[in-house]
């Protein structure tokens, strides 16, 4: 296996190409290991004036990385207007994602770092998944219930148990099985990717005051507590259900390694409030390493040279570190 990482461009009309170019510019200062982008070279040229080199095979990136951003081309995304996504761009983003996952699965690269896509745009070109997480899980032959979307910042790691569904659907989507599966993926992922062999898990309640003994909702007593009992019986270190309003202050965060939250915003609001600039999205439970910045396509600032590459840089660093941890963990 090469020491390379692959970075899919994400939507060419979003900030993906700009933050990848800026990450390449920061490669020495940030100690980044060699990587190449997968995408339409024109999308990069339209938003970033650094040097690029179009490569024919991934391994060409090794000799080119020092002097230019290597780009493995995909289908032409047409005329890219930053901030104005279209279907050609969505096809380009999808092909970049597919190629990157394929290269990671084949062992050609150590990891895939995915640039941000607009889910609604990809769904218009036949992408039948809530997000990249579920797409990559299926491509790797892993049931989507058995992966966990980890958002990790320097002082907080969170996993949403339900993810991209409407808030009204959350109670019905929660089950003992889902919570147990996400928690297992989270615990094993902490050991494999971070070297935390016996992680402390904290599981949030769904309702105010974690239901206050059933007086404010029954999900804790009927679903969350039985799931926690199963996990404890399996030997996992689990606290909860914790009232969500008091589990994210500094002293509370020191008591766990990862917080499992019942729905998307319960998890992502605290981590983005604390670490929007440097949190990373990593999929746990995969045979490959996959990371991504914590943010989306930011169409509102695309093409304006305003995008910060810091979360992308953190995603590149975390992918490299996770690969190293896996070598140690798996011998
Ligand atoms: N991993 C992924 O591919 C993700 C994709 N998305 C997609 O992104 C699209 C837009 O979602 P939003 O909720 O608007 O979130 P967003 O993260 O794209 O933008 C939210 C706000 O943060 C700003 N922002 C984001 N990244 C920034 C950066 N690197 N530097 C400076 N400012 C930055 C944006 O300008 C905007 O004001 C949606 O279609 C969503 O599906 C959202 C989150 C993750
Ligand atoms: N809000 C997080 C997010 O949208 C991540 O989605 P994806 O990594 O599954 O594409």
Automatic annotation (TrEMBL):
UniProt entry keywords in alphabetical sequence: Cobalt, Cytoplasm, Magnesium, Metal-binding, NAD, NADP, Oxidoreductase, Pyridoxine biosynthesis, Zinc
Primary location: cytoplasm
Pathway: Cofactor biosynthesis; pyridoxine 5'-phosphate biosynthesis; pyridoxine 5'-phosphate from D-erythrose 4-phosphate: step 4/5
Binding locations of a divalent metal cation: 164, 209, 264
Compartments it resides in: Cytoplasm
UniProt keyword annotation of Acetylation present: no
NCBIfam families: pdxA, PRK05312.1
Record-stated family: Belongs to the PdxA family.
Function text: Catalyzes the NAD(P)-dependent oxidation of 4-(phosphooxy)-L-threonine (HTP) into 2-amino-3-oxo-4-(phosphooxy)butyric acid which spontaneously decarboxylates to form 3-amino-2-oxopropyl phosphate (AHAP).
Additional free-text comment from the UniProt record: The active site is located at the dimer interface.
Protein name, entry field: 4-hydroxythreonine-4-phosphate dehydrogenase
Organism: Blastomonas aquatica
């Amino acid at each position: 296996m090469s020491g390379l990482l692959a970075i899919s461009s994400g939507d060419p009309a979003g900030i993906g190409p700009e933050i990848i170019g800026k990450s390449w510019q920061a490669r020495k200062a940030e100690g980044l290991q060699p990587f190449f982008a997968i995408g339409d070279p024109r999308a990069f040229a339209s938003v970033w004036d650094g040097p690029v080199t179009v490569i024919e095979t991934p391994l060409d990136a090794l000799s080119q990385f020092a002097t230019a951003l290597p780009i493995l081309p995909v289908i032409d995304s047409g005329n890219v207007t930053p901030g104005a996504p279209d279907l050609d761009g969505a096809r380009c983003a999808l092909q970049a994602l597919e190629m990157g996952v394929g290269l990671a699965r084949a062992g050609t690269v150590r990891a895939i770092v995915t640039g941000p896509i607009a889910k609604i745009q990809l769904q218009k070109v036949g992408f039948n998944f809530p997000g990249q997480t579920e797409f990559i899980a299926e491509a790797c032959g892993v049931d989507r219930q058995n992966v966990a979307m980890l958002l990790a910042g320097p002082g907080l790691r969170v996993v949403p148990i339900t993810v991209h569904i409407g808030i009204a659907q959350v109670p019905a989507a929660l089950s003992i099985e889902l919570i147990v599966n996400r928690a297992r993926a989270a615990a094993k992922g902490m050991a494999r990717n971070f070297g935390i062999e016996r992680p402390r898990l904290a599981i949030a309640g769904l309702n105010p005051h974690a239901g206050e003994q059933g007086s404010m909702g029954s999900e804790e007593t009927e679903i969350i507590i039985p799931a926690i009992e199963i996990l404890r019986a399996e030997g996992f270190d689990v606290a909860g259900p914790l009232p969500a309003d008091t589990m994210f202050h500094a002293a509370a965060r020191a008591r766990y390694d990862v917080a499992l939250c019942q729905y998307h915003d319960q998890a992502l609001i605290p981590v983005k409030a604390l670490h929007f600039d440097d949190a990373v999205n990593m999929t746990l439970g995969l045979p490959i390493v996959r990371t991504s910045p914590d943010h989306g396509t930011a169409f509102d600032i695309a093409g304006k040279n305003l995008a910060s590459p810091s979360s992308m840089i953190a995603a590149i660093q975390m992918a490299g570190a996770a690969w190293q941890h896996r070598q140690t963990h798996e011998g």
